[in-house]
Amino acid sequence: MYRGRFAPSPTGPLHFGSLVAALASHAEARARRGRWLLRIEDVDLPRAQPDAERDIVATLTRYGFAWDEPILRQSERSARYAQALARLIERGLAYPCACSRRDVQAAPVGAGGDHIYAGTCRDGIPQSRAARSERAWRIRVGNASIAFDDRLQGAQAQDLARDVGDFVIKRADGLFAYQLAVVVDDAEQSITDIVRGADLLASTPRQIHLQRLLDLPLPSYLHVPVALDGAGEKLSKQTRARALPDDPLPALAAAWTFLDQPMPMSAPRSVAEFWDFAARAWTPRHLPPVPMLPAPAGV
Questions:
Q1: I need a surface site. Which of 8, 152, 238, 299 has the fewest CB within 10 A?
Q2: Does 20 share its domain with 163?
Q3: Mean pLDDT computed over 183-211
């Protein structure tokens, strides 16, 4: 059975960009008569805002989203991530790193926008950094070149050593990194299809690398365009994107149009009517095959 998910971070209210990703994943699941899950990705506890999860859940409910299983929260799953890390360490695939953020930020930037780790601690922590008490854990990428076909964006390929380097799977502050948490969660929730924003396209090869090392199933990927504001930046909490309005129907219609989906003969008169239409009309082949698009005015 098809199993999809929407996984917001509780760092602020949902905005139009969030709605586009949620709508695409929910409509795809309903069109394929599958299950749709809600996961709260609060693994980065310092960035989580009080009451943000409650606001997210209330907004999704008001907008007619319905999840088919209890909500999963990453903040409650550290033991599962620790087990995955232990497996990687036992197999010699992960190693401790004493490099500081400043050390890493001095490295060149790869094609995906990340600083390329030089492998400073790969063969042991250098004496010059041994006095640092905090340790991150990094995964060895070796000569891995990851290729996959995105259902919308087409063929993708990334040379991990050239574009990223050995990447962090547990941070020096003791928190598990998103890349490890997300693959463990997707596997344990039996997610078959991931529909999300194209801002995560560049990190997908890292997740596939971890899935292979941990012998986890590889889901299908579909990355929809992200919405840009008037300055050409991605709508996000960091760029102060507006919270979704209280009235759901105009925003749902705007997100549906943004994704180039077939329009109904007459405008839905209720949220329930919108979702009934969306489940029948959703057509992935109509999605714009681009990673980003300007958001409608006023969202």
A1: 238
A2: no
A3: 97
Asked whether residue 184 is domain-assigned, the answer is: no
Strand runs (DSSP E) across 76-153, as ranges? 94-97, 136-139, 145-150
Q: Quick one: DSSP state of residue 48?
A: -
Question: Domain residues for 134?
Answer: 78-178
257 shares a domain with 283: yes
Task: Evaluate if residue 110 carries a pLDDT over 90.
Answer: no
Partner residues linked to 115 by β-bridges: 109
Q: Which of residues 143, 159, 178 is at a domain's end?
A: 178
Residue with tokens 């990851």: 146
Q: How many domains does the chain have?
A: 2
Say yes or no: 194 and 57 in one domain: yes
- CA 63/CA 15 separation, integer angstroms: 12
3-state secondary structure of 157: strand
Straight-line distance from the first to the last Cα atom of the chain, in angstroms, rounded to the nearest whole number: 35
Query: Using alpha carbons only, what angle is made at residue 188 by residues 11 and 15, rounded to the nearest 5 degrees?
Result: 25
User: DSSP secondary-structure letter at 121?
Assistant: T
Note whether residue 183 is domain-resident.
no
CA–CA dist 85, 175 (Å, integer): 12
Distance of CA 121 to the CA centre of its chain: 28
| CATH at 100 | 3.40.50.620
Task: Mark residue 260 as left, alpha or beta (left: phi above 0; alpha: psi -120 to 50; beta: remaining).
Answer: left
The residue out of 131, 157, 178 marking a domain boundary is 178
Quote the tokens at residue 84: 């995955």
Query: Max Cα separation, the chain?
Result: 70
Q: What is the pLDDT of residues 202-245, one digit of tens each?
A: 999 999 999 999 999 999 999 999 999 988 999 987 888 899 99
Q: What is d(CA 34, CA 66) in angstroms, rounded to the nearest whole number? A: 12
Helix (H, G, I), strand (E, B) or coil at 115: strand
